[in-house]
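FYI - complex with S-adenosylmethionine, inputs then prediction.
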Amino acid sequence: MIQNTKLTDSQYRKLSKIVYDTSGVVLNEKKYRLLVARLSKRMRITRITNASDYIDRLGRDEVEFAEFIDATTTNHTFFFRENRHCEYLVKTLDAALPLRIWSAASSSGEEAYSIAIQLLENNFSFTINASDISDSMLDQGRAAVYHKDKVKNVPKFMLHAYFQKGKKDWVDHVRVKPEVRQLVAFQKFNLLSDTPSDIYDVIFCRNVMIYFDKRTRQKVVDRLCRALKPGGLFFVGMAEGLHGLDHDLVSVLPSGYRKKTGVL
Ligand SMILES: C[S@@+](CC[C@H](N)C(=O)[O-])C[C@H]1O[C@@H](n2cnc3c(N)ncnc32)[C@H](O)[C@@H]1O
């Protein structure tokens, strides 16, 4: 059944419009196979055998709708990814001042915990909100259990200090220690939603805007900038950048920005 799932042009357009309208993720023709693979998985789980019935189901079943959107997200991430941004925080911010940090599009939490352990190591006081559109990723973040492959870039001494080793069936896994977990709160948040004003000192929104078109990127940047305090730091993925977008940010390092204070 999986291999045989085929979509008419109209079904493909309907499904990619649902994804675009809900998450901003663009699934153009090049992503046909990806969409079909993920749709097939949901059809197998829901035991629906044709795409047309599945599309009807999406129209009347909120839970399946959320599962479908979740299934269309790309969640790849790992500890200490693009760590220059976090090193910049440690180097330039005053550890005496409490920080409120947002890992927007946190996937399964590796980004948020990477920031947390490095700030703890340098005696910062802080809280981190980690958010994503995917419920399954948020659950993984809360569980904080990771395969050893995901922590390859974590320096050995930090691995010992901030992770518990798995035993028996979990010998290939580690778990973030409770003292780190308690500093990271996971919450569902769609980047297309409204944000409050001026509450974060630092926002990470990395490796998600590559899936958006320019219109959505502009909307997301506007909203995240609103949530950032004047003088606050904003990081996007190294392959992203804010080229061609309007914003109140000045570049401080590759893919790293500071919100203007009004004086600049
Ligand atoms: C590749 S991961 C990025 C993880 C991490 N920030 C990093 O740089 O490694 C992209 C994440 O963006 C999330 N995402 C996609 N569209 C979103 C939206 N509209 N609102 C919130 N999260 C979204 C996906 O669920 C996915 O977990």
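The chain has two domains: 9-71, 84-259. The chain has ten helices and ten strands.
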